[in-house]
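Final report, results section. Input specification for complex C-07:
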Amino acid sequence: MADIASSSLDPKVLDRLEGLELVARTVVEGMLSGRHRSPLRGSSAEFAQHRQYVAGDELRRLDWKVYARNDRLVVKEMFEETTLSCHLLVDASESMAFRSGRWSKFDYARWCAAALAHLVIGARDTAGLVLFDDRERVKVPPASGAPQEAAILGALEKASPTGPTGVGAVLKWLSGRLRRRGIVVVFSDFFDDIESVAEGLRALVHGGHEPIVVQVIDPLELSFDLTQLARFDGLENAGQLKVDPRSIRAAYLEELARHNQQLARVASGMGIDWIQMNTADSLEPALSSYLAHRSARSRGGRI
Amino acid sequence: MFDGFVNPALAAGVALASVPLIIHLLNRQRYKPMPWAAMRFVQAAYKKTRRRANLENLLLLLLRMLAVALLALVVSRPFLGDQSPLAQLAQARRDLVLVLDTSASTGYRDGVRSVHEAMLERARELLLELDGGRDDRVRLIAAGASPRLLSWRRPEEALSLLNSLAGPDDEPLDLALAFGEVARLAEEDAAQQGASTLEIRLLTDLQRGSFEALPAGADSAAKAGPNAGVQRAPAVVEQLDRLAALELKVWVEDLGPAEPTPPNLSISALEPLGEVLGGGALEVAVEVRNHGLTSKSGVRVWLTLDEDQRLPFRTLDVPARGSARAVFSANFASAGPHVLRARIDADRLAVDDTRVRIVDVPATARVLLVNGDSAAEIERDEVGYLHSVLDPLGGDEVLGAGGLPPFTARTVAPHELSGGEVDLSEFDVVLLANVDALSAPLAEKLEQWTAAGGALVFTLGRQVEPTAFNLRLHKPDGTGLAPLELLSRTQIARRDGYFRVRSFEATHPALAFFADERWKPLLTESPTYEFFQSRPDPNARVLAQFDDDAASALLVEKRYDRGKVFVWTTSIDAEWSRIAESPNTFVPLVHEWLRYAARSERPPRNVDVGAPLIAQVRAFPRNATLLSPDDTRRAVEGEPRSEGPGVWSVSVLDGSRRAGLYRLTFDGAQDEPFAVGLDPRESDLDRLSVNELTSLHRTLVATRDTPADDDAPAPTQGEVWRLLAWLCLIALCLETLWAAWVGRTRRLV
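Structure output:
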């Protein structure tokens, strides 16, 4: 069972599947297989306390058992209803088109997003999608149900990674526009100015959201294992450079590590989960993180 | 930077140092396009490392180019002159030309060892100073009559060759040829390297005769030293001038004996006195020369005949720097070559204490007289007087005690000759006396016989008809048998006077007897009343002429292939001339003339050292072998050469390097002996002084020490290829290490 689960989260396997729906279902089933029950519950209605009935309270909230016993009219007060909203923000800028293998960072991101959408909607939570580059490009407002999932998957299917990156600015802009507070899962490579990203995340947090930062990076970008003389053609018109990669590798990795460390620091400073996902690795970390947040939230807390 | 290159063409290989640069530039074209998202990090990394990476790459490139350039320089072998600022770094390679005087005089034994041995020892010392590893070179020249370049490269090779010089040659030293060879080497050297840095050393005994010679030598820059009387050989001066033009010196090391005029006695000459005739005693003179400064008395001289007949010795007193002669009487019972060997007691130079000579005792000349006008009385017979002069005893008795008759004569009538009754091969001379016209077959027969080496003589008379004579025997182009064209007869009545011999070739063997003023009138005053006028051929030699207006020829000679033809334009009897009636004239005339005619030309048996040995034999020479004075034998290479019908010659061009007796032996034929004689000048050991030597020419420097004694040392050139090779190696190592280091640092992440 575990093997089936792991393999269905393997990008190599997912790459062979036709259509995001199948991908999403495969991932989720793989994720959930082996567990005895869904970790997700429906909208929670947890009893908090009784209080005297006042005019205007909803009659359905009267505790009739107490009336029968004591002839007192009391209503049940419940914990806030946890109909979770999950906002999936997927970076569709040109930098996400990079691939060293058969699938690009964007493919990987949208598999994750599709799987999450399926998971969320399957748990009767609401999910929404925003595809962005340096601005919002496509928006699927949060909703639940199968049509919503189809809409999200359809938007993901149709999207292609183009345009410049502006993660920070987009997050900041979106923070005021996401109506429902919920979990915001951001899929991007975050190759952007850290300050700008930090500002964006801060805005989301202040907006009452729970961001999860999923940094999607290609293994080649991580290893920079290039031996041949290369002419680097920057995506998003970032310029061109002829260089012996071996001569700059150490410095490149240092720069990348510093950037990621800063990003991690920023995220951790805000209590935000930062997950770095190598597109060659399993999708599980992203989904597990979501689930952890979802579970915490349903108990009325946060991670 | 460099003064030149040993291999200048290879220096162009330095251009190959551009290859790493070209490869680097070509590689810059081969960048793989790489779309990249994380460009900000690439740019940041590049900015951070650009300078360092460029330096690393530049250093690698420079090291590679440097290694290639250094390698090219190493193989081209540059050299630096001593004026170069880098001269301190160069290895001053020595380039030595060592000339060894191997002439006979160096066999002089001064104490325990000879001058030659002292020279070899000194040569070894000099060679051992050289270092083949440093690429020192040596050209070893053995200088005798002609210089021999024994070794021209490595000192080790020269050292081993020294051992092969067992002793001196028996040749004199030709210094002009030796210096000429040195000058040639120096000029080649200078042509290659721009200047010659040869160190030239001559090891010699400073024998005066080698350095001095003919008068009127001219060296315009020569110093006028105190010994201006020493004459310089022009050829030597010319060669030394060539060396001077290259600013080279010749360091002359004197390894001779201490005395300026070492004592030495030599046999300077061994020769018969007078002509060697067949039969009778022959006087042989042995000349002993004293080259020292004190007279020698009681010098014993021995003479041996044919190696086994030792004559009693003579004792001589020889004055200082003078000579004395001992005369021996020798008898030879047989014709052919005989060996004379003269000897004195051995002294410090042994090679000149003996001398050999070959004496060819002529065989009896066989003369055929063809009598064209016979008569009973000897006075009237055409050949009456002639026959009696040639064979006075009729062949019954040998002339003199124990001697060989010089002639045998046979007289025949012309028809006997024409009829084939006479075998011409039995005769050395055929004399046709007043014979009328010859038949064509007879003329042809005579032509063949003469061409094969016979001597044909025509004496004229009434029977001879010019037209028939010319028709049969003369050709206008001079290729006929007769040396002249007969014209008309000239006569003078006896009462009116007579013709005389106005002039004759006094040096010709046939007439040399009459060169003596005492005997000259015997020929010139003998009357002749009638003779044939003639027109000698251009290739004929007129030996005697009458005193008529036309200076007509009396005796004419011509070479006809290997033979000789003579025409006596008057009669040989008393009819036209009274020469035959005068025994004092006729006997020496006929004897000398016919003896000369009968003598066959052959290569000399007495030669100088180094001359070829040529034997002429009458049978095909099979398995020719040369036996040398030291009893060694070697087969003679090369094919015998035909010199005519039944005559062959065998040559040994390089056989006579030693003085003494040689023999060429053949299967089925008689041995041919040769006497190879030492040049008598080699025995005079008188030496030059140092002052005399240096006054001869400005290039000559007398020294027993190193050239450092000279205040103007020879220019040197040093090679630096070893240093460059080390630098190349270091460059390659550095390049390898640096490339490995850079690769490692770029991988370790």
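DSSP finds eleven helices and ten strands in chain A. The longest strand of chain A covers residues 136-143. This concludes the modelling results for the funded period.
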